[in-house]
UniProtKB/TrEMBL annotation:
<dbReference type="GO" id="GO:0051073">
    <property type="term" value="F:adenosylcobinamide-GDP ribazoletransferase activity"/>
</dbReference>
<keyword id="KW-0812">Transmembrane</keyword>
<comment type="function">
    <text>Joins adenosylcobinamide-GDP and alpha-ribazole to generate adenosylcobalamin (Ado-cobalamin). Also synthesizes adenosylcobalamin 5'-phosphate from adenosylcobinamide-GDP and alpha-ribazole 5'-phosphate.</text>
</comment>
<feature type="transmembrane region" description="Helical">
    <location>
        <begin position="222"/>
        <end position="247"/>
    </location>
</feature>
<dbReference type="Pfam" id="PF02654">
    <property type="entry name" value="CobS"/>
</dbReference>
<keyword id="KW-0460">Magnesium</keyword>
<dbReference type="InterPro" id="IPR003805">
    <property type="entry name" value="CobS"/>
</dbReference>
<dbReference type="GO" id="GO:0005886">
    <property type="term" value="C:plasma membrane"/>
</dbReference>
<keyword id="KW-1133">Transmembrane helix</keyword>
<protein>
    <recommendedName>
        <fullName>Adenosylcobinamide-GDP ribazoletransferase</fullName>
        <ecNumber>2.7.8.26</ecNumber>
    </recommendedName>
</protein>
<feature type="region of interest" description="Disordered">
    <location>
        <begin position="1"/>
        <end position="30"/>
    </location>
</feature>
<keyword id="KW-1003">Cell membrane</keyword>
<keyword id="KW-0808">Transferase</keyword>
<keyword id="KW-0169">Cobalamin biosynthesis</keyword>
<feature type="transmembrane region" description="Helical">
    <location>
        <begin position="63"/>
        <end position="83"/>
    </location>
</feature>
<comment type="similarity">
    <text>Belongs to the CobS family.</text>
</comment>
<keyword id="KW-0472">Membrane</keyword>
Length: 283
């Protein structure tokens, strides 16, 4: 199931090294803007085109990962609202299934590989060896089932909410969950050598992470100002993400001395679950 090394490494058909063309950068569009398009190429299977991308474009793509989550989340939230007449849980399951098609199960792949590696190995060498194995083991299979079922069940809890609340919540989940791995990319060293195809994307700078974090912050502020979500829930969601990010980073450092792309994908999935749980918590 190793079609990509989760958040850090793009699929072979969109690898930066194979698509970049430093000699032919966009003559008019700044790399900051081009990076938005490159972020969709990197994280999804949406055919946005735009090739060739320069190295600077791929470097800026990291800053816009949460924007990708925001747009996808809004679209998925709208899909869930349209499907609600079929029932809460079926609508949620179909929506999560659609997200897998759009992203190519990008982050789910990282969760499966991370679960197999951390659950099935006791030393650094074997953890890294399992991460490179294309097969899915029992730990990975269980993790995938847990992620899919839990997210579908939590999303189904939004069945009775207003359309704007459901769409806003799913958009926030998609955006905020993709902001947390950015700070792990800034803070933690990489445990493995990075190939040329991903080097321009994975070297996140604090400025990129700060810009990426701005997307869910602005979205959360708008949702709170419009009365769609309460400020208390938004703060709780942010705290939940901080906890997940801190705990997972500590675990990654302890086991292999740093992060990998698969680890970042696992963090994103766990953050989605944590945010969903906070947003549907019945007080």
């Amino acid at each position: 199931m190793k079609s990509a090394e989760s958040l850090e490494a793009p699929r072979d058909d969109v690898a930066p090294a194979s698509r970049e063309s430093p000699a032919h950068p966009s003559p008019r569009t700044p790399s900051f803007v081009r990076g938005m398009r490159a972020a969709f190429v990197f994280l999804t299977r949406v055919p946005v085109g735009g090739f060739p991308y320069a190295r600077a474009d791929w470097s800026w793509a990291t800053a816009h990962f949460p924007l990708v989550g925001l747009v996808l989340g809004a679209a998925l939230g709208g899909t869930f609202v349209l499907l609600r007449p079929v029932g809460a849980l079926p609508a949620a399951a179909l929506t999560i299934g659609l997200s897998l098609l759009v992203t190519g199960a990008f982050h789910e792949d990282g969760l499966a590989d991370t679960s197999d590696a951390l659950g099935g190995a006791y030393d650094r060498e074997n953890v890294l060896r399992i991460l490179k194995d294309s097969r899915v083991g029992s730990f990975g299979a269980v993790a995938l089932c847990f992620s899919f079922v839990t997210r579908a069940a939590l999303l189904a809890e939004l069945h009775g909410s207003r359309p704007v609340e459901a769409i806003g919540a799913v958009a926030l989940v998609g955006s905020l969950a993709r902001a947390v791995p950015l700070w792990q990319m800034v803070r933690a060293p990489y445990a493995t050598e990075q190939g040329s195809k991903s080097r321009d994307v994975v070297r996140a700078e604090p400025s990129r992470a700060a810009i990426g974090t701005g997307y869910p912050l602005v979205l959360g502020g708008v949702l709170a100002w419009c009365g769609v979500l309460s400020p208390l829930r938004l703060v709780a969601a942010a705290i939940a993400c901080l906890v997940v990010g801190a705990v997972t980073e500590w675990r990654y450092r302890r086991r292999v001395g740093g992060i990998t792309g698969d680890f970042l994908g696992a963090t994103e999935q766990l953050c989605e679950i944590a945010i969903f749980a906070v947003l549907v918590w019945r007080s």
